[in-house]
Amino acid sequence: MAAKVEGQAFGARLALGGAPQQPTRNRSWLINFRRVQPLPLVLMIVVAVATLVPLIYLVVNSFNVASPTSYKFTFGFGNWTSAYADGDTVRSIWTTVWLTLVRSGIAIPVGVLISWLIARTNMPGGTLVELGMWIAFSLPVLSLTLGWILLLDPKVGLVNEALAGLPFNHGLVLDIYSYWGIIWIHLFSRAIPILVILMTPAFRRVGARLEEVSRMCGASKFKTLVRVTAPVLLPTIAPLAILSIIGGLQSIDIELVVGIPARIFVFGTRIYDLLQQAPPEYGAATALGGSVLVVLLAMALLSNRIIRSREFTTVGADFSVAKVDLGRFRWVCFGACAVFLFIGVVIPTVSAILGSVMRRFGFFDLPHPFTTQHWSDVFGDPLFLASLRNSIALSVGSAVLAMVLYALVAHAALRSRGLPNRALDLLAWIPWGVPGILLSLALLWLFISTPLHVVLYGTLFGMMLAFVISSMPAGTQLAKAALIQIGHELEDASRMCGASGSRTAVQVLLPLMSPMLFTIGVLVFIGALSEFSQILLIYAPNSRPLSIMTLEYIFNGDLERAAVLGVFMTAIVSCLALGARWVGLKLGPR
């Protein structure tokens, strides 16, 4: 009403020929700030501290030539000169770039093709293929990597032993410890599955009318895909391509296990290598991390800008869901997708299981090569029991904290207006461009060079913060997707009946959002259980989870026990995925 009266007064002054006065506009920011509700403002501050402070601390301390534990700041460029004067650092950056471009150049076309087959064609088993992509993406990377090591180790790999027995083989050896070995594992375990998962819903929203018109003009099915369907989905494919490149630049887990034995370093493993030296080169590692961080954040912001600013309408009044008829090739396409999943999921998983029951990993020519002794040794080890307790506490705590925080942030971003709305939306995207190893390095600097190390360094709570921060972009967007489907009138009706804001949240919003919140919790739980890059530099021996214990087994050459832990975590993830699907169907309104 006040705005309406003010507008009428402005119009009256203008009609009378008077000069328009704008005192209100000059103070509009102050008025808007006074209207900000306390909870969104507090959430904005909390998220800003969690996402910005560690990263700013990392960039600032890249110019700090003093010791991290001295609690002093001495400006200088010594860290940068020592980092980039080293040829290994330059080579690691170049290796990171070309590995990422090659991997993305293969993954994006394949992901587009598989998504199109699932969503836009009559290929049988499309639902099974999509579910298989979810399974491939959710399985622990370390377990899949161990499976490929058992298959493609240049000395004792099963595939290489089979190739050696072929009469026409002239010294051909498939080496998993190579550039193409890294690319191979990435394509089947992460790069292609995540693109299919994200692009398939977009392909389902493309109206068949466009494709029908293209075919009526004489274009083939494949030409229609390349010239019509894919360009229409450019606003979806372009940011996903950027996210694929960001994901490649962020990767460290496969490169640690497969790359380091072959002396192949990317920038993430180079940072890890610098910090493992005696004494640790904190300054050089921080300078390398700071420069890469700026590039990655710029790419993440570019991706977010493309997502928010470009939109092609694909659902209109003439929307049709008619699918492309592949004819006799539909079973061929399904067979190709099934082979992809068989290679990417079944073969390495079975190989990891096989390796966990071998007396010596990869040696099949030993007398009685199979045993269950490694399972007994691992389960009877006190370190395993302690790591299992740490993993359960870390995963459960991260999932609960994430569900609460992401739901609050999503509500504040969608239901509030003004500064918190815009700031939360931006702040929640920032961790997307931060690799796990850089987040771990930023938190390491923050923990060891401030009094926070007493309560955060090497503690489960400090590691929970790392996982919650790293999962914030995806988790917040999922929570917003659930909340945006709930009408404002439900909350208004609850408040009109006398319910408080907290009671409305518990009795109205929570039941409606519970399926998505449960999904978010499961995803964060799985990430905290199987991933390790976010906590690689901030864990302590007494807070070691199963993922770090598996990595330590691999570094020590104890691949049998590492395979046991990998299979054990795979079983937990599989049970969680099946349980989440069953619970998700039971929750929510009916």
Topology:
Layout: H1 2-15, H2 23-26, H3 28-34, H4 38-61, H5 78-84, H6 87-120, H7 126-138, H8 141-152, H9 158-164, H10 179-204, H11 208-216, H12 221-232, H13 234-250, H14 253-259, H15 267-276, H16 282-309, H17 330-356, H18 373-379, H19 382-415, H20 419-427, H21 436-448, H22 460-470, H23 472-483, H24 488-496, H25 501-530, H26 546-555, H27 559-586
Helix pairs in contact: 4-16, 4-19, 4-20, 4-21, 5-16, 6-7, 6-10, 6-13, 7-10, 7-17, 8-14, 8-17, 8-27, 10-13, 10-14, 10-17, 11-12, 13-16, 15-16, 17-27, 18-27, 19-20, 19-22, 19-23, 19-25, 23-25, 24-25, 25-27, 26-27
Radius of gyration: 27 Å
Helix content: over 70%
SSE order, one letter for each helix or strand: HHHHHHHHHHHHHHHHHHHHHHHHHHH
How would you sum up the major sheet? none
Mean pLDDT: 78
Could you name the ranges where pLDDT drops below 50 across 5 or more consecutive residues?
1-34, 310-320
Give me the count of strands.
0
Number of helices: 27
Distance between the termini: 40 Å
- Strand proportion, as a percent range, falls in under 5%
Cα shape: globular
SSE class: mainly alpha
Brief descriptors of the model:
590 residues, 0% strand, mainly alpha, globular
